[in-house]
Amino acid sequence: MADILAALHFKPWTFIMMAFNLLIVALVLNKLVYKPVSKLLEEREQKIEGSLRDAALAKQRAEEQLKEYEARMQSARQEAQEIIARAQKLGAEMQESIVNQAREEARKTMEKAKAEIQGEKAKALAAIREEVATLAVLAAGRVIGRSLTPADHERLVQEFIAEVGEVQ
Fold this sequence. Notes:
- There is one protein chain.
- This protein is an all-alpha fold.
- Helices cover 93% and strands 0% of the residues.
- It has three helices and no strands.
- Helix 2 crosses helix 3.
């Protein structure tokens, strides 16, 4: 083994110094490079995880807002349908009210016209009765052959009108 070490030009002090230098370089690299790079990678990992959490939270909020928006839209549609239904119902009620009012006005107009017709009919009948009575008294006066006094004439007319009124 000593031959092998001599062939390799192995010197124990050089080996120890090289090992010591390697250890110092490893410690310096660990302190100056590995720890900062590890810390930087860990921070970056935490930042990415935080961004992913924020994105998931934002997605969840967006979904909740979408559901809320859809609920509001559904509510608005339903409210619009209710408003349309109320308007249609109100329109039907107004139509029915107007028709009923027109019918009532037509009925009142018919009653008024009938009353006017009855009044005019009564006036016409009264005028006819009076005229017939006058003619009857005149005819009776001629038949009797004597003239009647205005008082007799008035009395006979009134009696005739009363008799004709009872007949009807």
